[in-house]
Amino acid sequence: MPYFAYKGRDRRGALVEGVIEGADSGTVAGVLSGNDIVPVEIDQTAAPRADAAPAGAHRSLLRPRVKAIDLLLFSRQMYSLLKAGVPILRALAGLQESSTNTAFKHTLQRVRESLESGRELSVSLQRQAPVFSPFYVAMVYVGETTGRLEEIFLRLFHHLEFQEDMRGQVKSALRYPAFVILVMGVALAIVNLFVIPQFAKVYEGFGAQLPTITQWLIGFSNFCVKYWWLLLAIVVGAILAFRAWTATAAGRYAWDRFKLRIPIAGPIVLKATLARFARSFALAIRSGVTAVQGLTLVSQVVDNTYVANRIEKMREGVERGESVLRTAINAGVFTPVALQMVLVGEESGSLDDMMDEVADMYTREVQYDLKALGAQIEPLLIVLLGILVLIVALGVFLPIWDLGKVAFQGGAAR
């Protein structure tokens, strides 16, 4: 069907405009009238691109993007507006006007245009991928078909809030060790590029054989000074190669699997991922989605392809007629306590409640592990820092110590 650009007036007399898909201008006028918009001008136009960016946005590397907080606020506000009886189109128009994020404002504009052309809300949101994830779209579809759309938006708000809280806790716990390692790297670069070369000039005047460790330090420092550009290119190339590798399916799978095996941090990442899985699965089941559909949707929102693959295996098992417990055991990522809770949930017919309990359990464990993370990592950082300081100190001061001993022995001989 062709597209029509329109201009009209809403109930308040404000000018509104957009693009609608319709059979003819009369059909478009009828759609607008049904949405309390008085058409002023309707002209046929080209089809809009669903992924179109704001004008000139492709030229700016700093253009705004849709953030998690935008979806969080959107979900909560949609719940409040729909519960108050505000029509969806009017609610979206109000949220578009009040949004401070230009990218999200344009997204809501395209959602409105899609709705005005006769599409359902879930379809309109799906056309704005990846802003709205498949899980988000599926939950909205369930809300549309069951007549509980405002309730679904409230559940999505709590779901997104939980996910952001988990991500924030993990990031805040890893921020300190990452900062310490960064500072150590900068300090090591300064020592090699500026400090050791000055000592090397002093040692040249000694005319004596330097200790082995000092020779290694001076050789490495000379290499860094002479070929710093090569080292920088290697580092940048390694980062780009790593990003390209993790962008592939096999690379992303291997990296996500490796992250779960990192000492200390790996178990925390796994528990946080499983907490998001359990909470998402509980939300899907409670909203009326079947276990098979729920596992399919949840596998797309766990942020770890290895765990997502395990969940897909669970889905395949459930499709074959196996119980959720059996497939969870075969997945090999759940703790015995979590499996026991899944068993109780299946036997009692309250799997959604038990999955919520599993999410709460993993959340508490993550919070406890994050509090102890600093105490576990700090000794390792201190040992590493001590080794670096010892190596530099021995390399720098051993020649001075040897020179002092020779001078002392010479003075005693006289």
Characterise the protein shown here.
The chain has 16 helices and 3 strands. It has helices spanning 25-34, 68-83, 88-98, 102-116, 121-126, 134-146, 149-204, 212-226, 228-247, 249-259, 265-286, 291-298, 305-319, 324-331, 336-348, 351-413; strands at 3-9, 15-21, 38-45. A 3-stranded antiparallel beta sheet has the order 2-1-3. Helix 8 (212-226) crosses helix 16. The longest helix has 63 residues, at 351-413. It is extended, with a radius of gyration of 31 Å. The termini are far apart.
DSSP strand count: 3
State the helix count.
16
Distance between the termini: 107 Å
Question: Which class do the helix and strand fractions yield?
Answer: mainly alpha
Order of helices and strands: EEHEHHHHHHHHHHHHHHH
**Order of strands side by side in the largest beta sheet?**
2-1-3
Approximately how much beta-strand content do the residues carry? 5-15%
Shape: extended
Q: What's the helix and strand layout?
A:
Elements: E1 3-9, E2 15-21, H1 25-34, E3 38-45, H2 68-83, H3 88-98, H4 102-116, H5 121-126, H6 134-146, H7 149-204, H8 212-226, H9 228-247, H10 249-259, H11 265-286, H12 291-298, H13 305-319, H14 324-331, H15 336-348, H16 351-413
